[in-house]
């Protein structure tokens, strides 16, 4: 009896720990990415302070202090960028910066493509639900995908959708699939609901899922 109670407590503790661990992994990834952007500036700032005051250099020569300062600097820069982007003068500066990068072939491809992806994910393509289910990696298995663009196939005239399929629990990586629109399973999920489903590994999910187009057509034929 005591052994069963120990196993139950260990299992309960594991179930309690896993959500915290997944949250920490995602949170740590985001913080590390943001801090990495500001690390060069933070290092330069700390080096300047150290040269002016040796005592301050000893106190500030700590990896955690560098990490926190780099993170704060990055968040400050992002806030300033966001404030500028919402003003006419700031928008003109950003447009000028975009025009400058557009003259650099490789940089323009990466920067322009990433910027378009971020913009596309904020709006719904005409005639197609943004969050869909896709057969991947084989028929019968479904994954959550985001429609980023709808195109027309030459010759057949079929509508084809470019679908970004993020990975779990880190949605910043993933796959790009080109799928016929009539093979997509539309959902009524919002972007937030889809991201919660992906990051949680499916734990945060609705009780029901929409039927695929093939199943829906078969059910419609059976009911006739």
TrEMBL record:
Keywords: Membrane, Transmembrane, Transmembrane helix. The chain crosses the membrane at residues 9-31, 63-84. InterPro entries: COV1-like. Pfam families: DUF502. The keyword Transmembrane helix applies. PANTHER family: COV-LIKE PROTEIN 1, PROTEIN LIKE COV 2. This is DUF502 domain-containing protein. The lineage of its organism: Bacteria, Pseudomonadati, Pseudomonadota, Gammaproteobacteria, Lysobacterales.
């Amino acid at each position: 009896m005591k052994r069963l109670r120990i196993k139950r407590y260990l299992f309960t503790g594991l179930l309690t720990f896993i959500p915290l661990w997944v949250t920490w992994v995602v949170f740590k990834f985001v913080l590390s990415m943001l801090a990495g952007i500001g690390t060069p500036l933070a290092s330069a700032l700390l080096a300047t302070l150290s040269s002016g005051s040796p005592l301050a250099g000893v106190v500030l020569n700590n990896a955690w202090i560098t990490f926190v300062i780099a993170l704060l600097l990055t968040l400050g820069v992002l806030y300033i960028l966001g404030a500028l982007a919402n003003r006419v003068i700031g928008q003109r500066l950003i447009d000028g910066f975009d025009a400058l990068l557009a003259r650099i072939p490789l940089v323009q491809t990466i920067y322009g493509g990433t910027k378009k992806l971020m913009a596309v994910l904020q709006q719904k393509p005409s005639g197609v639900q943004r969050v869909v289910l896709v057969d991947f990696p084989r028929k019968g298995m479904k994954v959550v995908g985001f429609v980023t663009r709808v195109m027309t196939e030459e010759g057949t005239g079929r509508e084809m959708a470019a679908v970004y399929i993020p990975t779990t629990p880190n949605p910043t990586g993933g796959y790009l699939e080109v799928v016929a629109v009539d093979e997509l399973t539309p959902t009524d999920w919002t972007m937030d609901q889809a991201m919660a489903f992906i990051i949680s590994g499916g734990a945060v999910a609705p009780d029901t899922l929409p039927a695929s187009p093939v199943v829906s057509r078969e059910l419609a034929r059976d009911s006739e």
